Amino acid sequence: MRERKERFADSVEQVEQYTKDALNCQLRVYAFFIGTTDPITGDSWCPDCRTAEPIVEEATKKMSEKDLFIMCEVGDRDHWKTPTNPFRTHPVFKLTEIPTLLSFCLNSGEIGVKSRLLGDGCKDSAQVGTFFSEG
């Protein structure tokens, strides 16, 4: 089995472009939104994201070449906490907390959210496994 495709993003525009391109190629698309990596520690500033990341990464090992996984950093702590953070205000993403997992679909040619897994759910291997297996 060939491996899944993976992309890194740090803007809503990148996530939109990667998602739309992949959906148009009939790929399943998943995005994992986390706090930005601290350059000093090499880890996300968000403790919940640090806990969730290895669980999500382990679950993605079961993905196939028909899947695209996008790892997206939403900004440093101050930027994320601002109500005007673009990931919070985006008409489709509408993030309310991190970590968040989203799966996407196309609705009349526009990106839509098929399913969401929020916060503590991203730290639970059973919930994460179910999220990916249900597409």
Structure keywords:
135 residues, 5-stranded mixed beta sheet, TXNDC17-like, 5 helices, alpha/beta, single chain, Glutaredoxin
Question: What do these coordinates show?
Answer:
With 135 residues, this protein is α/β, with parallel strands linked by helices. The protein has one domain: 3-Layer(aba) Sandwich (Glutaredoxin), CATH 3.40.30. The protein is built from 5 helices and 5 strands. Strand 4 (100-107) and strand 5 form a beta hairpin. It starts with a strand and ends with a helix.
Question: Could you give the topology of this structure?
Answer:
Layout: E1 5-9, H1 12-24, E2 28-34, H2 47-60, E3 67-73, H3 77-81, H4 86-89, E4 100-107, E5 110-118, H5 125-133
Parallel strand pairs: 1-3, 2-3
Antiparallel strand pairs: 2-4, 4-5
GO molecular function: protein-disulfide reductase [NAD(P)H] activity
InterPro entries: Thioredoxin-like_sf (IPR036249), TXNDC17-like (IPR045108), TXNDC17_dom (IPR010357)
Protein name: Thioredoxin domain-containing protein 17
Summarize the structure.
GO terms for molecular function: protein-disulfide reductase [NAD(P)H] activity. Residues 12-134 form the Thioredoxin domain. The chain is an alpha/beta fold.
